[in-house]
Design brief:
The strands form four sheets. The chain has a five-stranded mixed sheet with strand order 6-5-4-7-10, with helices on both faces. Strands 13-12-11-14-15 form a five-stranded mixed sheet, sandwiched between helices. α4 (about 120-140) packs across α5 (about 180-185) and α10 (about 315-340) crosses α11. Helix content is about 40%, strand content about 20%. Mean pLDDT is about 90; it is low at about 5. With about 400 residues, it is of the alpha/beta class. The protein has twelve helices and 15 strands.
């Protein structure tokens, strides 16, 4: 998936093509790369010599001889310790801070609740102190800081470096200048690039590079929180932002304008409101009298979506009825997206993956019959295999790709 800018010349194109193969493989020889990307061995060797000189790759032994015999080829591999990324993912409730190596493998992680300090200045200060602490720890390692990435909830404009609006952090206001403020706080000596974007977009990057979407150029990830639902949309290999950076805000598509449940955005009947914990737990309390044996009956006001999903796995009839309702709204919402976007793959992330095969099959079955009944729907729907670190991993991958796109070797 394209991200981070375009290579400026042929040398950068060659370097990036070589590096992409190294990044996704363990050990590789010059001849193997030359065959895969149709460049001469001489050209590949020149690129390798530059990469070796800079420390981006290292030699790692000899390969096997060909059937015709001859010298065993020299093997090369990426040097993941060449550089590191600092990734900070702000969720509605916590700040997930991590460093990764050049393969976007996490090398350090710390998770902390947001707590009472939810102000813009307070969180920028937390970002800065984390970055400074990591840089001190890395100061003697020889690793290069490739960049910092902020993974934020809500509407984000990565081009301007601003958080447009977040329902979870309303005190930030409109167009909070997160990159400018952080760079000012870090001081003039801090010269690494800083990136920012919406959580779901970076999670789409992670799915493309390390998840289920590696072989797809048209796919959507859909992530659901107890309160909140959004998408990362990739079309022809490109991540969509849209004119106002609202591409992917599918949680605020109106599915039921008349009888719909109130949404945190102020509208009613939004996709995310219809599948929110607030609505599903209210429905659970309403129906519980008819299901006295349900695991939810004794919980009353303490019901959570985790309880509902766990009950589905154990065969609880009330929990299954509630998840049937969620699946119905997913089918309506995703069905509209299929008609507008026609993706090859939809990857479901977040809370409802905890409902296991039951929910997934309900959604799959419903989508087979949505819209244009004369046309067979071939879109695949699957649960993500990535865990809670998918935001920081996707952000780190974006930084790494941007670094390679803008540096010739």
């Amino acid at each position: 998936m394209k991200a981070g800018g375009k290579p400026k010349n042929l040398k950068q194109n060659n370097s990036r093509a070589v590096f992409e193969l190294l990044r996704h493989g363990e050990k590789i020889a010059v001849a193997e790369i030359a065959e895969k990307i149709r460049l001469s061995k001489t050209t590949i060797k020149k690129v390798f010599d530059s990469l070796l000189a800079d420390g981006l790759i290292s030699m790692c032994g000899k390969g096997e001889s060909t059937d015709e015999g001859g010298k065993k080829p020299e093997l090369y591999r990426l040097n993941p310790q060449f550089g590191y990324v600092i990734a900070i993912h702000v969720t509605p409730d916590e700040v997930r801070m991590a460093t990764t190596d050049l393969r976007a493998e996490i090398t350090w992680r710390e998770i902390a609740p947001v707590g009472v300090e939810r102000s813009f200045d307070g969180l920028v200060e937390r970002f800065a102190t984390t970055i400074e602490a990591v840089m001190r720890d890395k100061s003697t390692s020889g690793e290069k800081l490739l960049g910092v990435v902020l993974v934020l909830t809500g509407l984000v404009d990565p081009e301007r470096g601003v958080a447009i609006h977040s329902f979870f952090y309303p005190g930030w206001g409109r167009d909070a200048p997160v990159i400018d403020r952080l760079r000012t706080r870090l001081g003039a000596d801090f010269d690494a690039p800083i990136f920012v974007d919406n959580t779901n977009r970076y999670q789409a990057v992670a799915e493309s590079e390390k998840g289920l979407a590696g072989d797809y150029r048209n796919f959507i990830i859909v992530d659901a929180l107890p309160e909140g639902l959004g998408a990362g949309i990739v079309v022809n290999g490109r991540l969509l932002h849209g004119r106002q950076s609202i591409a992917g805000e599918i949680g605020h598509m109106t599915l039921d304008p008349h009888e719909g449940f109130p949404c945190i955005c102020g509208s009613k009947g939004c996709f995310e409101a219809m599948v929110s914990e607030r609505r599903i737990t209210a429905l659970a309390r309403e129906l519980a009298v008819s299901y006295p044996n349900s695991v939810l009956s004794a919980k009353n006001d303490a019901i959570t979506l985790h309880d509902v999903c766990a009950g589905v796995i154990s065969g609880d009839a009330l929990c299954q009825r509630l998840i049937d309702d969620v699946a119905r709204w997913y089918v309506i919402g995703l069905g509209n997206i299929i008609m507008a976007n026609d993706p090859e793959l939809i990857v479901l992330q977040g809370i409802y993956t905890q409902a296991g095969p039951y929910f997934l099959e309900k959604v799959r079955d419903g989508l087979r019959n949505v819209g244009l009944p004369q046309v067979k729907k071939t879109v695949e729907v699957a649960y993500s295999r990535l865990g809670d670190d998918r935001g920081v991993i996707g952000g780190a991958l974006h930084v790494i790709t941007a670094y390679l796109a803008n540096h010739a070797y």
